[in-house]
Amino acid sequence: MNSSATAPGATPGSGASPGVAGAAAVLDLSAAELDGADLGSAELSDTDARQASLRGARLHGAALLGTLLQGADLTRASLKETSFGTVVDKHTVVQGLSGSVYGPMTVERDGRRDEVERRKLDPLMSATRRIDIDSAEVDMDDAQRLLYQGELFTGEAAEYMAGATVSLDNYTDGVQDGLSREWYPDGSPRSEGQLREGLPHGEFKEWHANGVLASRKLFGDDGLTLLEEFTWDENGQPTRSWRLDND
User: Fold this and answer.
1) What is the CATH number of the domain that holds 188?
2) 86: which of 64, 158, 221, 226 lies 20 to 30 Å off by Cα?
3) Given pLDDT bands bounded at 50, 70 and 90, which one contains residue 102?
4) Are 104 and 116 in contact (CB under 8 A)?
5) CA-based max dimension of the chain
6) In what order do the strands lie in the sheet with 146-148?
7) Strand partners, 93
8) Are residues 86 and 3 in contact, defined by beta-carbon separation less than 8 angstroms?
9) 54 domain residue, yes or no
10) Is the pLDDT of residue 10 over 50?
């Protein structure tokens, strides 16, 4: 894989049989130009997309099980709850590929195929530096700033559960700054909001495990003042409706 570059693998067209189980691909998209395409919920399993260009494509909810992506360009493509059991090689470009996926990749190299677990894809997928928050090299200083290898960390910190990404937070010089997201182990969203210099900024949302919105909070520019709060139960029935100007 290429970020630009580098998971080892065989050259496209090297003679390896298509499909994870060696079955013939159902749909031929080899060398197709699909930059920016919206392929949400598309059934692309067992598709031959070798050397296809999918730069910036949206693959939200798509099924890519056994999809051949050797030599494909997935620069800044986005995934969301995507079934991802693709076959890639050293020529597959995944720089900036982002989002939530189910399942590992299969890397083709030296005539054989090996699975790569989800967390090992992140350094290649992200154009931003990304670390595992549970790494032994992660620590906090006296000011509760995040350190990585002894230095203030700037980039994305991910948390994993059984190989799935369950949280992703942005940091600048050890302080949370930017988008903060959480997912349930099945990949469905759990929470999402923005932080500015460690404080909440703007809208924060939380979801129940069944996908129903659980809460919506709106914070003021100072990050300390709660302006609005609305909550709902698992059936979508409102349980709280509050605005600062109501008090």
Assistant:
1) 2.20.110
2) 158
3) low
4) yes
5) 71
6) 138-140, 146-148, 151-152
7) 2, 73
8) no
9) yes
10) no
Q: What's the CA gap between 90 and 47, in Å, rounded?
A: 19
Domain end position, chosen among 70, 103, 127: 127
Residue with tokens 């969203």: 189
Domain span at 93: 1-11+24-127
Provide the percentage of residues in the chain whose pLDDT is more than 70.
80
**Ranges 82-91, 119-128, 187-196, 208-217: which has the least confidence:** 119-128
Cα(238)–Cα(160) distance, rounded to whole angstroms? Answer: 32
Q: How far apart are the first and last CA of the chain?
A: 56
Give domain status of residue 19, yes or no. no
Instruction: Indicate the helix (H) or strand (E) that contains 174.
Output: none
- Identity at 68, one-letter amino acid code: L
Same domain, residue pair 203 and 92? no
- Report residue 172 as tokens: 């600048």
| Single-letter amino acid code for the residue at 145 | R
Looking at the structure, do residues 219 and 236 belong to the same domain, yes or no? yes
By the 8 A CB rule, do 182 and 191 touch? yes
Q: Rounded distance, CA 131 to CA 119, Å? A: 9
116 with 180, same domain: the answer is no
Same domain, 102 and 137: no
CA 234 to chain centre: 25
Q: Scanning the structure block, which residue is given the tokens 């290649």?
A: 124
User: Phi first, then psi: what are they for 120, rounded to 5°?
Assistant: -75, -10
Residue 221 in tokens? 């520019």
Regarding whether 191 and 75 lie in a shared domain, the answer is: no
| Helix (H/G/I), strand (E/B), else coil: 121 | helix
